């Protein structure tokens, strides 16, 4: 795993021109880009007269053309390594030989693959050195590591001496997620849990309503989860940690009046519309399964098809003991769908109903996998666009009989009498509809709106139960 030490501010005209001479790029394009690198003059107005100096490089840091030119230069590097690895001395990594994969690039991070022998490593290092001479981009050895497996100590010493890189140990974080050669432990998911905890600790200092907290969980926390859930099958212990963090945040670290499992149902079923992490994980992995089935045009799908399926169907493939936990989980999801619909053909036909030209619709997949409950008619009353969300949330709690009225706090040895009239026990129904003060408020509302109907919660309360 390599990191470039310098970026496009290092590039200059002659280097760029040499890099692309002989490529398929039109000369008119190359000459146009050549003109991007004229000498620049700068003025410092810290004193009079201003100090004028000339820039040595054509591009400045933050230049809008830098990303595009960086991609062009990485294209040159890809062509270079493709040409160099045709040498008979180069041996592909055993898992990369069928597709002839030699490297992966993301921004200025580079991963290179080969068999663990000195001639192959030597050819890769020659590619890096030639690219450095042409472009000015060199490898940052202090941020680069080499990962090996099954190599004898003598060969390993020679490889480390040739590369001057340190030997890395897995798991290692790459693009924010851990890479490992074996099943991840619960501790390896700590970056995800820590990121969620850090967001929550930032919000905890703010004065937020229940509805505001709910929206942050739905839009931010579950957005963070989604990146991981479509890559890894999360262990139950990690899911429970995430649920605990979200539950404590939603209820302000107090006792939860409604179970998290009840919250993770659609609003028309009496929930709050939050997606259950484990079920959402299954739905996202079902999309991965569907991409493998339709042989989507991605390198990872092509690699799985070549190395594991060997050109066969994912519906017939059986995982082995040492296969990736992700692939084993995909096989479990596949078997679950087949068992539900009886045959492979029926399962494929049903999943095709979830998909479009862009791939499988994970919302439909989630709807299939999630547990169902009876629809609650009273939900249509409280979730209205014109009702402020915090009021809808309080009404939702009230209809479920979960407001912290004094009749529900008797275990704290609190006085259970109504805080407004002090005559009757404080229940949700009494507080909002039977108390003299509440009656006075409702009477004025009816008069202002010219209404004659009386408002009560008996019917909705019975529906809630």
Automatic annotation (TrEMBL):
Superkingdom, taxonomy of origin: Eukaryota
Protein name: Reverse transcriptase domain-containing protein
Lineage: Eukaryota, Viridiplantae, Streptophyta, Embryophyta, Tracheophyta
Pfam families: RVT_1 (PF00078), zf-RVT (PF13966)
Domain Reverse transcriptase as annotated: residue spans: 1-179
